[in-house]
Amino acid sequence: MATSISATGFQGNLSSSFHGSWGSSIAGEDYSMLAKSVKTQVRVAKPSRAQPMMKNINEGKGLFAPIVVVARDIIGKKRFNQLRGKAIALHSQVITEFCKSIGADAKQRQGLIRLAKKNGEKLGFLA
């Protein structure tokens, strides 16, 4: 079984062809040129992993987004996030109390909380 392999693109414009079977080896002049063109040390960089970001995909969009952005700029980002956290916690408590009053289970309650978050993002409250 005869096979033809050609190697191009190495340093020094090495262009070589190998004709033979898979059991053959490269010998002679082609081998020495190939051995010189291959780097002996390879530098491997540590793989970088993207940091997860908690970012709103609708940032800047929504009916209330401009008001939220102006309020954040006026009172400061740190204080704004504290107030936002308190508001979200209160809203979650209201949803929990509602679920208790109608007899909804924990799975339904969690679904309502997720729905409230999606609606808040769409309306711009989480901008």
Automatic annotation (TrEMBL):
GO terms for cellular component: chloroplast. GO terms for biological process: photosynthetic electron transport in photosystem I; response to high light intensity. It comes from the Eukaryota. This is Proton gradient regulation 5. GO terms for molecular function: electron transfer activity.
